[in-house]
């Protein structure tokens, strides 16, 4: 009897070892942070699969699959009198009427990821892109331009349900000119670990250090588009509440950041709110603190950030010279529910001299229960 059990255990060990090896191999195969395979479209289609700039083969662009009217655009190419720029490298792709481009991604099941990509409007007036990793899908409005170059980088986040997922970018527009549609370029991915709650801060990711991938050679930041409340945010657990406008994610390499390496710039005035829901105890006092200023990007003038929590609110004004700097804001309030929504809104509409939208920078946000802090001081 003991001999049989020993033999069974010995035969089970290779199977268990094989399973461990398979799991480790699958994890190793998951895509790494950075540019997607041919994410910058510098690997060109064969000339035999091009009709002018139109891509004719479904698999003509290496690592991508296309459908519909898709064009392969070279830097400096023209459409009539309009110059079609490319943000980085020599090539980009344009999605015409009802066109799409997709790529299969090896992922780690149950993990959250963010996709960063750049897009530019061309000849259509209300351009948008439908981004999908099933079952999650969102329409990103791109009609508002936030840079003087015409190119903006966007981010979108999702949870991997399977070890391999299909990432799809679709232009749902139908224009009289079938070639009218957005230019797209520079697709990258980043793994988003669960945001940790720091000591003495009920908020998570209050310093915005966890966020989407940022291209080192694109100095205009990354837009955080509006999202549904059940979506996963690229700056989770912060949510961007708006109908069509965005918030900008910025880094210390290209902007003046009050704290750490990243912050957000509230570039859309009253049309967009940055919110986070946090656990609170009804009847207890809390203090919300934050830094508000300017990102040193030439955004000058009168600014104001309004913070809301429970029944309280505070407005923090800031007179910007566009060269960086910040002031501290604080809001004391009493919780009225088991969950409190903290929200930030720019109360002003600001614009740089080149005509692009800008606004106050927000960073270093914290929330503490002041009763707990008073009790600690008494014990000391």
TrEMBL record:
Gene3D superfamilies: Galactose-binding domain-like. Residues 1-30 form the signal peptide. It is found in: Secreted, Cell wall. Keywords: Cell wall, Glycoprotein, Secreted, Signal. Residues 34-190, 202-367 form the DUF642 domain. InterPro entries: DGR2-like_dom (IPR006946), Galactose-bd-like_sf (IPR008979), Pectin_Meth_Modulator (IPR052437). SUPFAM superfamilies: Galactose-binding domain-like. This is DUF642 domain-containing protein. It comes from Eleusine coracana subsp. coracana.
């Amino acid at each position: 009897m003991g001999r049989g059990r020993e033999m069974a255990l010995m035969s089970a060990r290779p199977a268990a070892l094989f399973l461990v090896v398979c799991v480790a191999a699958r994890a190793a195969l998951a895509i790494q942070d950075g540019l997607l395979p041919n994410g910058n479209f510098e690997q060109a289609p064969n000339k035999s699969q091009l009709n002018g700039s139109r891509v004719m083969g479904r698999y003509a662009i290496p690592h991508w699959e296309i459908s519909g009217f898709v064009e392969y655009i070279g830097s400096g190419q023209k459409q009539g009198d309009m110059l079609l720029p490319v943000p980085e490298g020599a090539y980009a792709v344009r999605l015409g009427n009802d066109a799409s481009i997709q790529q299969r991604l090896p992922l780690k099941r149950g993990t959250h990821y963010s996709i960063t990509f750049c897009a530019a409007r061309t000849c259509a007036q209300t351009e948008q892109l439908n981004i999908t990793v099933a079952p999650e899908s969102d329409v990103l409005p791109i009609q508002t331009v936030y840079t003087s170059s015409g190119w903006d980088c966007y981010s979108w986040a999702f949870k991997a349900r399977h070890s391999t997922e299909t990432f799809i970018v679709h232009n749902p527009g139908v224009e009289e000119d079938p070639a009218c549609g957005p230019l797209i370029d520079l697709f990258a991915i980043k793994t988003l670990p669960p945001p940790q709650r720091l000591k003495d801060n009920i908020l998570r990711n209050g310093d915005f250090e966890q966020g989407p991938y940022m291209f080192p050679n694109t100095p205009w930041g990354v837009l955080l588009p509006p999202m549904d409340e059940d979506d996963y945010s690229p700056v989770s657990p912060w949510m961007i509440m708006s109908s069509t406008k965005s918030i900008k994610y910025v880094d210390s390499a290209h902007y003046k950041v009050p704290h750490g390496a990243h912050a957000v710039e509230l570039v859309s005035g009253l049309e967009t709110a940055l919110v986070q829901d946090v656990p609170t105890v009804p009847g207890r006092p809390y203090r919300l603190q934050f830094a508000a200023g300017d990102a040193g990007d030439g955004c000058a003038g009168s600014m104001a950030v309004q913070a809301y929590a429970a029944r309280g609110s505070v407005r923090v004004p800031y007179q910007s010279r566009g060269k960086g700097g910040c002031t501290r804001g604080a809001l004391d309030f009493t919780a009225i529910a088991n969950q409190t929504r903290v929200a930030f809104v720019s109360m002003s509409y600001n614009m740089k001299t080149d005509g692009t939208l800008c606004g106050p920078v927000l960073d270093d946000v914290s929330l503490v229960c002041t009763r707990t802090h008073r009790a600690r001081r008494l014990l000391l």
